[in-house]
Amino acid sequence: MTDALRKAPLALPLLAVALVLAVTTNSFLTVGNLENVLVAAAIVAIPGLAMTFCLAMGEFDLSIGSTVSLAGVVCCSSIIDGMPALLAMALALVVGAVIGLANGLVVTKLGVTPFIATLATLVIVRGLSLAYTDGHDQIVSSAALKYLVGGRPLGVPMPILLAVLCTALAWWTVNRTRFGRWVCAVGSNREAARVSGLPVDRIRIAVYMLVGVAGGFWGLLISSQLQKGNGQLGMGFELDAITVVVLGGTALLGGRASVIGTLLGAVLIETIRNGLNLLNTPPAFQRISVGLLLIAALALLGLRRRTVKAAPVPVTVREAAA
Amino acid sequence: MGTDDDQTAVLLQVDRLTVEFPGVRALDDVHFDVRPGEVHALVGENGAGKSTLLKVLGGLHRPSAGEIRLSGSTYRPRRPADALHAGIAVIYQEFNLYPDLTVAENVFSGREPYHPLTRGIDYAQINRRAAELFEVLGVSIDPTATVGTLTVSEQQLVEIAKALSVDGRIIVMDEPTAALSADEVTRLLDVVRRLRSEGRSVVYVSHRLDEVFAVADRVTVLRDGRHVRTAEITATDQEELVRLMVGRDISSVFHREEVQEGALVLELDGVSAGRQLRGISLKVRAGEIVGIGGVAGAGQPELSQVIFGALAVSAGAMTMDGRAYKPKSPADAMAAGVGFLHEDRKAAGILPDLSVRDNLTISVLHRVRAAATRLLSPAAQTAVFADYRKRLAIRTTGPDQLIGQLSGGNQQKVLFGRALAPGGRLLILNEPTRGVDIGAKVEIHHLINEVTADGTAVLMISSDLPELLGVSDRVYVLAAGEIVGHLEGQDRTEENVIACATTGRRIFSEVSAA
Amino acid sequence: GCSDSNKTGSDAPKDDKVVVGFSVYDMQYEFFQKMEAGTKAAVLAKGWEYKLHDEKSDENEMVTGAQALIDQGVDVLIISPFKPSALGPIIAKAKAKNVPVIVDDIGGGGAPYDAIVISDNAGGGKLAAEFMAKQIAANGKTSKNVASITCEPSAVYAARRNAGFKEAIEGLGFKVVAELSGNSKAEEGYKVMKDILAKNPDVAGVFSCNDPMGVAAANAVKDAGKNPVTDIVTVGFNADPEALTAIKAGGLAATVAQDPTAMGALTVKLAEQALAKTAITFGNAAEREVFNPVKLVNKENVDSVK
Amino acid sequence: MSTTTETSTPVEPPRQPGQDRAPMARPSLGRLWDTWGVTAILLILLALTPLFAPDFMELENLQSVLRESAYLGIVAAGMTFAIASGAFDLSVGGQLALVSVVTLMAYSAGGTAAAIGAAVATGLACGLVNAGLITRLRVPPFVATLGTLFVFRGVAYILTQDGPKTLPYDQIDSPFVKIGGLNVAGLPLPFVIMLAVYGAAWIILRRTATGRRILSYGSSPAAARFCGISENRIRVIVFALVGVSVGIAALTYITRVWTADGSAQDGFELKVIAAVVLGGTSLKGGKGTLIGTFSAVLLVSVLNDVLVSQGVPSAYQRIVLGCVLIVALTIDGLRTRFAVPGSFRRAVAGLAARPSASGGA
Ligand SMILES: Nc1ncnc2c1ncn2[C@@H]1O[C@H](COP(=O)(O)OP(=O)(O)OP(=O)(O)O)[C@@H](O)[C@H]1O
Ligand SMILES: Nc1ncnc2c1ncn2[C@@H]1O[C@H](COP(=O)(O)OP(=O)(O)OP(=O)(O)O)[C@@H](O)[C@H]1O
Ligand SMILES: O[C@@H]1[C@@H](O)[C@H](O)OC[C@H]1O
Ligand SMILES: [Mg+2]
Ligand SMILES: [Mg+2]
């Protein structure tokens, strides 16, 4: 029990919130609503998983919200121009990959701090997206695109299925592959990674590309829901993605990745949001509640940590030697 | 391959190597060579350029001039991976470990084997192989432990295991024993000999000349970034090496001034801290140097941190000058007049982004302020800096140099100066001479002696047995978090310390119990 | 070349040619692009000079840029304010330099502007309510529950739309069972609609304070397997192209159209009157408001809207 | 075969302890760049501006640029402390909204003095709330301030449920309104306040024990702890400084735009953090430069002003601004890469000697 909690500490706050909602509303526990929550959570969890790698590597990618927009715009306008939908969707992912590659190259080859590099990309890509659309919606009606969120293979909504698959894949990658370990290694001590002969630059570029592709995919999901692309979409999404990762327990300073945590973080955030809507909370109070719940969830973890671990780094906390 | 004997006898040849940093020429026209199957020691004062040379070999620094040949062909590593591919494994003086990853993951980083069936990293294999490496080194470190929770000496052993796990032709070790206990040193030297017998070469850097004479075939002396001499070990002796290193004779005899029994400063009565310390009782008097010995991991850093308020007491009581002493934080302890030197220079010692001057004065900021404005006075700070630079022979380009740019030993001197600066009732020194050169070591011992003359009590933790016994007036021995020995007078012998620390014997001198 | 319409050196003699400065809310929205086009065309048609400043949805940029236009010596300022309540310092500066100020849309924030051209937002909300009630009846639904999706709480003009809708629909015997904010964004409008459907599956209609949210809500309705015209009457506001497209395709029941191009032209007419110091006929003299009518657009008349 | 090689260097006379072989007092170019790099870029930009934007140098325009950048600059000064200590405060946008709303309420209740007091007190209170969450509840600064960003904005929204708080137009001659509009010896008062804030901040960071402790903590929290520096005190001081800076900034902000509600300055936090990092303060903590922050704030403002005055559409403004950010930090990145003497020469030589072998890796 305690071990399970240690591995997935968000489970507790999540259960608490769910319990409160189950009692205070009569619609929270309906199948339709739970599906709602899980689909919404899945849509932010998928890019969140990619962002988990970035944070585990000790870096940020702030540009993902703009990638969402540009990818959606490229996909939709290509469909409008007559490109087959699947190809247009692939093109959107390529756009994401290129943005990620640009981030990676600027960060590794030009030595620009990730925070500024990706902030600059955020601004530039948003500019591209707005310049390209000039404020016009790129409206499409594409069954293939719609299938991304609307499809129900095996009766399960597509985003949920994808999120579960991605989580499994991410978990395996983080914990069982060289790439995953190297990402954590770079995040834990970049200099040591270099000295150990790890291809640090290539690892970093790969992670930025991963986030880029995930951003592109996020853009497809949003465009799938809205059946349009637009330069205004995805604003502020970078914070959403980073929030679910941090909430999930992946350290901001890097070195550790909590894949399951990210998934739970996404579910927690979306449960809170959904709950506040079910309770008809006015917008001003919604903000406060989201803020307070964020703090409360982490405070709960913080207090627990404090009782467990009396002294911080680098005092040796270990079983007494035999 | 060439037929010339002299050519084939050299595996690695360094010629006219020069390395520059802003403001410093760390290596100046240095030559150095390594033969197959030899142990080649590299010695020199702190800042002489030893680590710099090794970093060039490892692909961390690019020389501004010079040439290196490996097995006769040009060797110009552009990055550490190149060195590894060329079969050169380096153990750097400052660890390069991932604190968040496990021991085994650290050891095999970059070379993780995949399991043939699951196609995932074969953890069973790396854990087993790591355990085997530690077995060779004669230590028990859990391969699945997170490295950030290890002691400094355990981390050093992980670094060594990492280098051994690479099948290198040349294994380069930069002060591998600085953090090891006597026992572990013996084992490491055995390992070095075994590597040699396997035909591998070892470049060995150490400030402990007895190790050099115990294991090396040849020795090279660097001074001020220049090559001074390379000699067969049999063709030289300790005195000569010291003279070549420092350019003068050094008497390594430590003379402890007689101190008179002072008042009781610190008393611990049955102090426990979690599972790390159990029922510790000890006393430290004014003007006294009390040593703490024991194998690594017996609870020494925990004991010092409990007294310094960095670790919570779970049972028992402390008194200082007869009054209850319950520091809640190091800040509390410092306010009570306690100074502290941490054993982990890199992780908990240096403030890497700050200058040498700032590192020296950070604990005495109230003393370097203008009285009227309470603003820091750069002049007063520089005065403190100049004083310690002189007393400790700190080699730096000036007060504004970042401490991270100093050689390891010089960083240690700065940290020692920092601990000394506040003065006061009690000085807690963890491994005060770790990594410092022979001359500075003597100097530091003198300084410890000097502060006790002012009535300051010193608690010194050292894994260097000669230092522990030579410098302290009394010695407590720790084992598994308990005090298992208290050695005074005649009883202060290496045999007794080792017996208490490792065999479970308990020896308590009766000379002056309380 | 830098002698385009953007540039009027302050070296140009003041009385030579009338210079109109227009500070626009945000050129990234089609609505304001049309407003800008209408304004510019009217200015140039008079043979006047035109200067544009984009507030980029930022009150700091709005104040700085509008004041800069005044500093550059415009003869009249037309402004579509991102934050109406930040008009004070702009008008203070304009007054000091004797520059009349005509506000276009959004709101006047209580400052002493010369005139404001305003869409009848509350009236638009009322039109939406009346249409919704009729359509619900036509759909044969008996449920008296409806919902509304609002913009961010700070958008005063949008709040008026909602207030107008709410008053009218409640007057028609309906109940607004959910009133949630989608912060003007399509993404959020979609999610909010899903939550509304989960809690109140029986809503018969939903009103959104702008079209991005309205069309997104309609998409959410469709994704829930219902029809946004015949099951849950979904109404937006603005007549953005995406709304018109959706209405034609049966993917949205209706929207409320404003005419930003005409509003732009109207502000120029008022500017001319203000410069000539001739009296302006106000729709609401107390607030110096000149109304620009709104109209409801649905399947029947959508083809007549450009 | 000789067994011993001896270098020609004879054994030298003993070295004085502490004497170095290459004592170099002159500050390295790299160190200078750390502090003055962005300033240099700013100066170059200023020198070039008249070429393509002749109107820029007009007094009224210069005043406008300085006036409008003050509030961001002042908060950036506070944020420099937070970032130098290794944390950042994401809640400044919420703080600015809340402080502005409360200040306007205080003004209508008690006039200028009440407003000024309320601004600083509310800012401080916000900072202390953040510090409390971080030190008492052990919430990491990122999450704590992300949470309070929502909370502060939310409270501001609640306080403005019947519409934004606004300075009534008839108060146009009140001394309070003058804060935003007045010029002192040709300098806009907000900018004068900003200069004073930077002066005070510089003294705190560079000349007080507190400043040194903040940098130490940022450089290595573990080492700082063993120097007797209390983590909690650092957190409280740093977040209080940010809060107070927002309080002061709000005064210059509110008296320029006259209005506030929960939505004021959406996205403010990223702009502030970007300015600080662009200035050369390291996000990893331990390094802080107020001169850099100051110059970065002006750099962004000047650039924005030039782009706006040249009629560049906002979408393209973004593209240019983003590229400038990258270029500015590229220069910095290259500097660190080529800090070692001769490394640049070698890199160039290496490029020349490597005609086509760069494709593979
Ligand atoms: N990154 C750096 N930047 C500037 N100077 C440096 C840097 N690294 C080393 N130095 C300087 O180069 C000289 C040689 O340092 P090095 O680390 O090689 O000495 P060392 O012989 O290994 O000393 P120690 O015994 O103390 O480890 C020193 O003066 C040191 O200050
Ligand atoms: N951030 C801090 N962490 C730990 N101890 C501190 C800190 N600030 C002050 N102290 C301690 O408080 C005591 C008072 O010293 P000092 O006069 O320097 O404090 P201060 O007045 O807060 O400093 P300053 O004048 O820079 O504000 C000293 O023991 C000092 O070490
Ligand atoms: O209707 C307009 C709306 O579409 C825009 O987003 O904001 C201003 C409004 O008047
Ligand atoms: Mg060294
Ligand atoms: Mg003080």
From TrEMBL, chain A:
Question: Any idea what this protein is called?
Answer: Ribose/xylose/arabinose/galactoside ABC-type transport system permease subunit
Question: Which is an annotated Pfam family here?
Answer: BPD_transp_2
* Keywords tagged on the record: Cell membrane, Membrane, Transmembrane, Transmembrane helix
Topology term for the membrane: Multi-pass membrane protein
- MF annotations from Gene Ontology: transmembrane transporter activity
Chief localization:
membrane
GO cellular component terms listed in the entry, alphabetical order: plasma membrane
Localized where? Cell membrane
Bilayer-crossing regions: 37-58, 70-99, 111-133, 154-172, 205-223, 284-303
Q: Which organism is it from?
A: Allocatelliglobosispora scoriae
TrEMBL record, chain B:
- A cellular component term (GO) from this record? plasma membrane
- Which Gene3D superfamilies has this protein been placed in? P-loop containing nucleotide triphosphate hydrolases
Span of domain ABC transporter: 12-249, 254-505
* Major place of residence: membrane
The alphabetized UniProt keywords are: ATP-binding, Cell membrane, Membrane, Nucleotide-binding, Repeat, Sugar transport, Translocase, Transport
What GO MF terms are annotated? ATP binding; ATP hydrolysis activity
Localisation per UniProt entry = Cell membrane
InterPro entries found in the cross-reference section: AAA+_ATPase, ABC_carbohydrate_import_ATPase, ABC_transporter-like_ATP-bd, ABC_transporter-like_CS, P-loop_NTPase
The protein's matches in Pfam families, at most eight in alphabetical order, are given as: ABC_tran
According to the lineage, what is the superkingdom?
Bacteria
Q: What is this protein called?
A: ABC-type sugar transport system ATPase subunit
Q: Which organism is it from?
A: Allocatelliglobosispora scoriae
TrEMBL record, chain D:
Composition bias type Low complexity, residue spans: 1-10
Q: Which residues cross the membrane?
A: 36-57, 69-88, 108-129, 141-159, 179-205, 234-255, 290-309, 315-334
- CDD domains for the chain: TM_PBP1_transp_AraH_like
Outline the segment boundaries, as ranges, of region: Disordered.
1-25
Q: Which UniProt keywords apply?
A: Cell membrane, Membrane, Transmembrane, Transmembrane helix
Q: Name one GO cellular component term.
A: plasma membrane
UniProt-recorded Gene Ontology molecular function terms: transmembrane transporter activity
InterPro entries listed in its UniProt record: ABC_transp_permease
Task: Please name the Pfam families in this protein's record.
Answer: BPD_transp_2 (PF02653)
Main localization is membrane
- Tell me the PANTHER family matching this sequence: ABC TRANSPORTER PERMEASE PROTEIN YPHD-RELATED-RELATED
User: In its UniProt entry, what is this protein called?
Assistant: Ribose transport system permease protein
Source organism (scientific name): Allocatelliglobosispora scoriae
